Structures are given as C-alpha cells and as structure tokens.
Amino acid sequence: MNGYTQPQWMRQLRRTWLKNPRTRAMLHLEPVYGERLPQNAHGEAQIREDKSTRQIVAYRRIDSGELVLPEQAGPLSLPVLVTTPKKVTKEFAREINAAWPQAETIMVQRYDDITYWLQRCAVSEAPAVIAICSHSQSQPRGSGRSWEPAMLEKHSTEHHLVTEPAAELLPELEGILDPHDQLIGYRSRATGEPLMEARTKTHYRCPDCFGLILGIPDRLQPAKTDQRDDGSELLQQEDEEENESLKSVVTSRGWFEKKPRWCTCVHTRNAERTRQHQKSLRTPLWTQARVQTTQQKYPSISYREWTQVIDTVIQPPLRKRVSVDHVETAQKDPCQVLSARQATRITRTSEGMATIQVHHAADPLSVDYYDQIAPPPDSFGVYEYLIRFFEGCVALSIVDESHNGRAQNSDIARALHRVMRAAQSHMLTSGTHYGGDVASFYFYWYRFNPRFWKRLGLTWCQGRCNHEPIENWPP
C-alpha cells in the first residue's frame, strides 16, 4: 500500500472488520499493543510492543505470528450484498456469474449463511464474494417467528337477571316487570330471590399506559378500495384519523389479529407534545414471538414460576461458602476454576420426569415439578442478524426493486434500511420509485436521498407529510 491512499470507505471497512471480534476471528488476527516507530531505511514500519499502552498499533496472525499493519489487514475479497425479490434471486446469480465470472456468489437461505459468506470474504481469492438475499426474508415467519398481539387481557364477572330460564324452572318462577311492564327477569316464587347468572366480560389494556383499549368495530369501518395482500404493510402505522364517537371497548382478541393496532397512550410526555403541536407517541400492541410449533416443542413458564425455581433450587448452591485456597486460585486463574454453564430452559413436566421439585410455602404438600431442557434454536432473521452482529462489515449493498420498501415501518422497509446501515455504501435500483402514495414515497425517498427532503426543510417526522397537502410544502 506504499504510495497509495485508500478511500474513506475502504479504511472504514477495514476498521470495522478489525474492531468486530467475530470478523477479526475470521481473519485469524489478534491485536498488538504498543507504539509505532518511524519507518526504517527500507521504508518498513517498526513496532515496539508494550501492552501497558492499551493502544493497538498492529495485528499478529495467530497461525504464523506475522505482524500485519492495520492499513493492510482486512478481508481478501470485497463483501457485496444484493437483496432482490425472491422470484429473481437465481436469475440474478446467473447474470452475475455470466458478467463477472471471477466473482463468487452465495445464496443466503438462513441467518447463519451470513457468517459463512463473511468467512469466504476473509479467505477467498475472488475479487468479490456476492451474497444474494430475497426481500421475503424480511418477514419474521421466515426466521421461525410471527407477529402476535401484545396486550393485557383482563376478565371481569358481572351478574345479570336471567331472561330465558330453562323450561323446567318456569313453574317455580314469576316474572319481574319494569315500570313499562316489560319483562326483565324472573324471581323464585318461594323465596322471592331474583334468578341471576354470571357473565364473564373480557377487555384489554395497553401494556405501557394500562389504559382501556377502544376501537371501531369492523362493521362500522369505512370500506377500503385498495387492499394489499403482500404483507408489505404489516407494520405500517395507522395514520388516518378515526371517528372517536364510533369507538367502543374492545372485547375480542380477533380485533388485534386482523392487523397491527396502536395505543395512543395518555402520558405526560404526550400531553407536552400536544401543547407543542407535535404528533403523539404511540405504543404498538403487537410483538414478535416464536411460531406455535416451536412454542409447543419448547414450552416456557411464567416469570413468577421462573423466580420460584431460581430462588429455591438454582441460587442456594451458588451461595455456598468456599475455602480461601479456592478463592486465591480463582483470582490467579479464573478460567481454571470457573466453567461455563450450559444454557437450559426450565419447563413444567410430570412427576416421573422431573429433576426439580418446588414446594409451595403455603401448602408444603403441594409440589410443582420442573425439568431443564435444551433451549430452542436461534430464530434470527437474515437482516436482523446482519445488522446486530456485522454492522458496517459490508462494502456495498445493492437493493434491487427498491420500491418494495415504500413505507415508513413495514417489514421490507425495515429490512432494506438495515441492509443500507450494514454497508459502507449502498445502491438502490428501481424503475418505479413513485407508486401514487405520497406518504409511503416520502419515507422511501428519505432513505434513497435524504438531502432531497432536507433541502426543503423537511425531516423524518411524517407529521407535515401526512397532514398537509403537497402544494403547501416549502418551495
């Protein structure tokens, strides 16, 4: 690299790979601390090792012990990520192989393929290793998860007069009339006690503000002419104004399952935002959860049960006194004394298969039986895994048919945003950027070219875009 100035994106890519412990392990490098001295007469860098400085000046290859300067360390092949609609992923790979046969292509099917792709980038002699993902991998169902309602379900019991008693009870009953001589119930002829029945009513509360959730029944909802079934608006926020007079207490879980719902929480923060004419913050009433088959295979227990098991069985052995010699040995070499505990999940089981028994404090004869089982496998989505563990480790991300991300917070929009954040540079390609909806186009174009909106004095906040006509925007 003598006499050659690396571009900013390349320097940043190398730094990211060297700072990330996962990618640094792929390069088989370990940091060298010390001081970098002036070059010698031959133009070679000189390193004085000193761990006390805590300053990384070079890296050492674990297998050979060779020193490598930071500006010379990094992946051998260029990491390139392409995301495209699922139906053209194979065609995209064939076109790349035909146009650039020297490059290497990898089809990403699961999240662990991301690690394999970056490992190939670290050792491959190809000029670039291109990973190809599909837009559909943004959906949580592709990673063993699904969107489920997340709210507090409450039940209350109310007693009402019976208006339709059984036929065999009618001879023993007499009717109860209201002032308008309308039958409202029955009472016993012998005792005069009214015949009552218990009815359980269900309502739901917000997990954030604990407020009662109100909604418009489906039969009163206005008809929509444009229905999309592709799932791209699964997380799209409901920005339309609702008629407050039509709202009533939500009593059915199905209301939450039809589409994502939000709670406009009554918080002090929202009262302040209202005074400042800002949009109120809302709480999503949905969350990601493992699919039903996984939940049945790996059942979980409540937090209350978990704490009882931990406090009565797991914690006491960890609080035992140990000898002074054991403590001194642990201080000298913790790895020799401490061993990693295998990750397990506590679940309920039958008496014959139980390894843990918890006696109730109020009733010692009552026993709950538990067992420790293997935890469920990881369920990362491809794009979630990429941004969580390898942000900045991609040189170039190419988003084909990027108009599929025209939304503020849909699954695909979030995935494409993560692809852009994970790379040092990105490229969005589409022939139909605008699809007729200004609101969704606004957020999509903000990702595509944020300076376009900033030049007009607009920010990411969607308040003005959604509530002001386009002709009122700044010139």
Protein architecture, described:
- Residues 222-247 are annotated as: Disordered.
- The chain has 475 residues and is α+β, with helices and mostly antiparallel strands.
- The chain has 3 domains: 1-73, no CATH class; 75-142 and 376-465, 3-Layer(aba) Sandwich (Rossmann fold), CATH 3.40.50.10810; 147-216 and 247-288, no CATH class.
- It contains 15 helices and 22 strands.
- The longest helix is centred in the middle third of the chain and has 16 residues, at 303-318.
- The model is unreliable at 226-239 and 463-475 (pLDDT under 50).
Report the major sheet. Answer: 5 strands, parallel
User: Portion of residues in helices?
Assistant: 25-40%
Q: How would you sum up the global shape?
A: extended
What is the alpha-carbon Rg in Å?
32 Å
Gross CATH architecture of the largest domain: 3-Layer(aba) Sandwich
The fraction of residues in strands falls at: 15-25%
List low-confidence stretches: 226-239, 463-475
Count of folded domains: 3
Question: What is the rounded distance between the termini?
Answer: 48 Å
